[in-house]
Write the structure tokens for this entry.
Amino acid sequence: MSVRHDRRVRVQGRPVDSYPDLAPEAERGTVRRITVVGEEILARPCAEVTDFGTEELCTLIDDMFLTMYAADGAGLAANQVDVPLRLFVYDCPDDHGVRHVGHLVNPVLELPDPGSRRLLDDTEGCLSVPGAGLSVPRTDRALVRGLDKDGRPHVIEGTGYFARCLQHETDHLHGHTYLDRLSHRDRKNALRQMTARHDEILTRRAAKAARLSGS
């Protein structure tokens, strides 16, 4: 999932007149190692965040933003940087060209009723499955209720590609990757893709991390 930018931007669900190419949090961040499928932390549910407004939580969010950008991601969950907390960050467009940027703590995903939902098959990747991409069915709309780093409530709605992102990141917090939604054959295919491209992807990430950290 690559980041695509547009002039129309919503930050924490609210429209803004202008916004930089990288979220301001990234300027304070440090790139962390991204966990890889097969590591135990990615396969267990994350714990609720109970302490808000702390330096530790703010630093984690800053680091997650920079780590996401260094890996050319559109979203990143906390367990992908080896922290088992219910938190994700995102910088992702929807299908109408609106860029959505923000973070959500203790998110709860709500999907449309089965009778009104529409499933879309589209290629999906994951920063914890570097180099692989396969088609995954997701609903075309999603709503997530959660909190920000200071404990203030937020409701984030997404359509299309952004709805996919919200579902993907919430899955992580339940201990699932998109591989869990694939058939056995497709999962093996994804793992083969990852094996073939793993070193190439990590080399590219390291180069971009160095550029961002030095800017």
Summary: Residues 89 and 103 are 4 Å apart (CA to CA). The chain has one domain: 9-214.
